[in-house]
Amino acid sequence: MQNMTEATWLALQLVLSGDADLLEIVALSLQVSLSATFLACLIGLPLGALVAISRFPGRGAVLVVMNALMGLPPVVVGLIVYLHLSRSGPLGFLGLLYTPTAMIIAQTILIAPIVAALSRQVLEDMHSEYAEQFRSLCLGRWQAMQALIWDARYALLTVGLAGFGRAVAEVGAVIIVGGNIDHLTRVMTTAIALETSKGALSLALALGIVLLVIALGVNAAVQGVRMSAARHAYV
C-alpha cells in the first residue's frame, strides 16, 4: 500500500508523462462512452421529440415511465444485458459478452432514457410556442419534429453532453458485461476500482485526475453551449 504523498506524486508523473497503459484505458473509455452517447442520441432525441408533440391516451403514464427510466440502476442494466449476451442467452451466439461492444450496449440502455426524457421537456416547451405556426404552415409530424430538433440544437447538445457525462462515469453495468479485462475492456472507472482494491493507488489517482478533468471539460462545454445559445437568441 502506497502512502498518499507518494501515490499522488506518482499519479502526476503518470499523467504528465503520458503513460501508455493510462492512455490506453482513457482512450477505450472515451471510445465506449462517445459511441454510447451517439447511439443514445439517435434513439432518445427522436423519441423525445415524438412524445413532446404527440397527444394520445396514456401519455401521462408514458411520461412517468420515461422519467423513472432516468434512474435505472446500472447493475440491473448490466445484469439484463449479461443475461441476453451470455452463452445461454438469446443473443449469446453473437459472442459479444466481455467486449467493448457489450459495454456500449449497456451504456446506451442507461443513457438513452436520460436523453429522451430531457429532450422531451426541452422540445415540449418549445412546441407550445410554435404549435400555432406549425398548424398554419400545415406541417406534418415528422416535419415538426425536424424543425423543433434543429431550433433546439444548442439545448439538445447540452442534453447530449449530460448523457456523455453520465456514461463516462459509469462502473456498475460495464464491469458486469465487460469484465474489466486488461488491454480489452478496462475503462477508467473499472480500473480505478481494481487498482484501489489492489492498493496500487498511483494509477487509480492518475485515472481519477483524468476523469475529473473530463468532468470539468464537459461542464465547461455545457456552459459554453448555453452562452452560445443565449448569444444567438439575442441576434
From TrEMBL:
Q: Report one GO cellular component.
A: plasma membrane
- What organism does the UniProt record list as the source? Roseivivax halotolerans
SUPFAM superfamilies per UniProt: MetI-like
- The reply on keyword Cell membrane is no
Q: What is this protein called?
A: Tungstate transport system permease protein
Where is the ABC transmembrane type-1 domain positioned along the sequence?
Answer: 26-222
Membrane-traversing stretches = 30-53, 60-85, 97-118, 154-179, 199-222
Q: What is its main location?
A: membrane
Q: What lineage does UniProt assign to this protein's organism?
A: Bacteria, Pseudomonadati, Pseudomonadota, Alphaproteobacteria, Rhodobacterales
**PROSITE patterns in alphabetical order:** ABC_TM1
> So which domain of life are we looking at?
Bacteria
Which Pfam families is this protein grouped with?
BPD_transp_1
Keyword annotations of the record: Membrane, Transmembrane, Transmembrane helix, Transport
The record's listing under CDD domains reads: TM_PBP2
* InterPro entries linked: ABC_perm_TupB-like, MetI-like, MetI-like_sf
